[in-house]
Amino acid sequence: MDWRLFATQMATMARDLLAQESLDATLERITASAVELVEGCDAAGILVLHDRRVRTLAATEQVVVDSDRLQERAGEGPCFDAARRAGGRRLFRIADFAAEAARWPVYLSYADGLGLGSMMGFLLFTEDEDLGALDMYSRARGAFGEASETAGWMLASHAAVAFSSARTDAQMREALATRHTIGEAMGILMGRHGLTEEQAFDVLRTYSQEKNVKLRQVAERVCSTGGTDG
């Protein structure tokens, strides 16, 4: 591998990641970069684990989704284990599916039909949180060696920072939008029913709790219909 060229490509990718306009776009750029920059990588995706439920983000091919579902069903696998820091590890590599039956026997017995030969799973993490695992797959056996592992780890490190930043930005945008919508709904209730600001908010909150509907959804209903029962 030409590490000088790779370093230049990584620097370009890092700037590109921070320039993306949404969380989805950032994640799609991460997985596309894995295919472009890591030697041997044919497909990539991000596995997010909630308890033992798996969600696949920005998969470049359907086989990534299929593999993640198999890992969820089996309760094991390199990316599944990376996402939950199994054994304290942040990286798992299958150099050859045929040679790893003892480590993940259930998953690999299912995965035999996916046409995959090797794979890697990298934990995406910052100092504050674990975000998921970056999956990289190859159809060839023995596709990922030490150089691929090093390149993948470097990419995953940049990706984790970009992922965390994009998610924080998305959460802030959502919070601002929610606050604006709730404020607009309160203004409608105050003007229509002669309520104080506190009373208008209580109307929204009470309806939200009684109907088990998110507060923003209640506010959106008021904005579109003029009341909670519209």
From TrEMBL:
The keyword Kinase applies. GO terms for molecular function: kinase activity; RNA binding. It comes from the Bacteria. Residues 162-223 form the ANTAR domain. Keywords: Kinase, Transcription, Transcription regulation, Transferase. Gene3D superfamilies: 3.30.450.40, Winged helix-like DNA-binding domain superfamily/Winged helix DNA-binding domain. This is Transcription antitermination regulator. It comes from Streptomyces ruber.
